[in-house]
Amino acid sequence: MQVARAAPVLGLVFLLLLPVFARYNDYVLQVFTHALLLATLALAWNILGVSGSISLGHAAFFGAGAYTSALLSLDLGVSPWATIPLGGVLAAGIAAIMGLFCLRLRGAYFALATLAFVEIPKVITDNWDGLTRGSLGLVGLPGLPSLRLGSYHFDISGSLAGSYYFVLGYGLVLLLLVTLMFRSNLGLALQAIREEEIAAEAVGIQVQRYRLLSLLLSAFFTGITGACYGHLIRYIEPGLVYGLHFSAMPMIFAICGGRFTILGPALAALVLYPVDQFIFHPLLPAGHEFLYGAVIILAILFMPSGVWGQLRKGHFVSIKTGSIE
Amino acid sequence: MSLLKLEALSKKFGDHWALKEIDFSIDEGEIVGLVGPNGAGKTTLFNLIACRHRPTSGRVLFANEETTLCKPHKIQKLGISRTFQSSRPFAKMSTLDNVVVGRVFGGEFHLFAQSTDIDSARQLLELVGLAHKEQTPAGDLTLSEQRRLDLARALATQPRLLLLDEVVAGFSPVAVKQAVDLVRRVRQRGVTLFIVDHFLSLSLRVSDRLLALDHGEKVAEGRPQEVMRNREVIRAYLGTRYEDE
Predict the structure, then answer these.
(1) How close, in Å, is residue B154 to chain A by CA atoms?
(2) ipTM above 0.90, yes or no
(3) B146 touching A, CB under 8 A?
(4) pLDDT digit string, tens, across residues B74-83
(5) Which of A188, B10, B65, B139 has its CA 20 to 30 A from that of B1?
């Protein structure tokens, strides 16, 4: 379909030029920076989602990544560029523990177990005052240092446009990685597991091993996103980074956009969050989030494969059979 | 030399013996039919060989190696593949991708590499007559197409022994005839076949030997004509009135 081919390219051009269109308006830039952040979360969430598991617990990884990087950079004075990957590693470590308990479950049982699991790192962070300063949160996180390429300085934390382009760049890198992953043999295995676990096992796929691997990868990138978030906002507290927002949003975007596609989850984040903030928030300041409830019901009832999945007409992530995304 | 050897294989579900002391062996290159009425234990026997279930007692040997307690993905690596009684396609993946999955994970692969061996998957679709449907999502295929896809996917893993569970159930006479040709072509590729076939429409025509089960016990084995004349087999299929007369 023409739309399906043109939309990603137009979308990218739009995102690249957005700060110029918006005349560097603070509010617009903040909204789209957060939308991009949610888009990366949705991409990361879908690394697990493509295997058929629905997680309601990704805030555990987001929060763990944010706290790990924040504490290491605040207390030890290490550069955020070194601590952000460590945030991803700790998030993956927590995912390994979660996997131990939850991966034997399927469907709604898995989702509910992950929802409950978030409370474990949250309660620990909330109460281990000596290490995490508890519910007071952390303030004054170091911003992301400028990147230097020869004589060129890319100032990330100095301006909102800098933060915006940083998240956009990170999102594009993650999109590339996810695309390669989904088109690799691992992606093939995860889809097969989602469609027919018993048949997948019968053709030689080690189902539990790959489910765990997809959970670890998904958690790793969610942790990195959480760590970046902390250094961009420069303030975190347990209720914020372990909040339902960061668990539910990626799932909502993935389901609305299309869980069986690469781009769908990210596109949904980039459309729905700005619509929510620019249109529904002014109209209904107290209840604007009903939008998410409404779209998810509509998607499940009328477009179970998501809007992007529907546009692609059954062309899901496919390795060599013509179409990708 | 026997490729598959079953020694006193038994399986109990609760208080019910699904299989009782089955001794049997299959030689390399043979086509063996597994026949018996509903509940005879045919699928249970397949599930034991394919390591989906563990036997209550007894042993399974494949190529002289004990495989009784293998994991399902491991038994595939040793050379046993199967199709399912109700076919289990990867519904949202394309027909071609379904076969590619078998090709990739049945052999050596790098997890993060992209599979390049698409041609052999296409050849298998050709073999089962689905080449023209390679882009179709597998869930959109008809029942008989899905069964053939199951077969192509199982063949893609390059098995030495292929377990076919009810491949022709519900097929029209024409489709059954095509399946007969297909099974013969599969044998020519050097694959040993063990076929479950409730209505005998396939196994009577292609099998070198039959194994007949009833209520979990072996009632007969041997050449198809002999087995079909066996009193126990006839009674199992048609009831006891034969003996009253």
Answers:
(1) 7
(2) no
(3) no
(4) 899 999 999 9
(5) B10
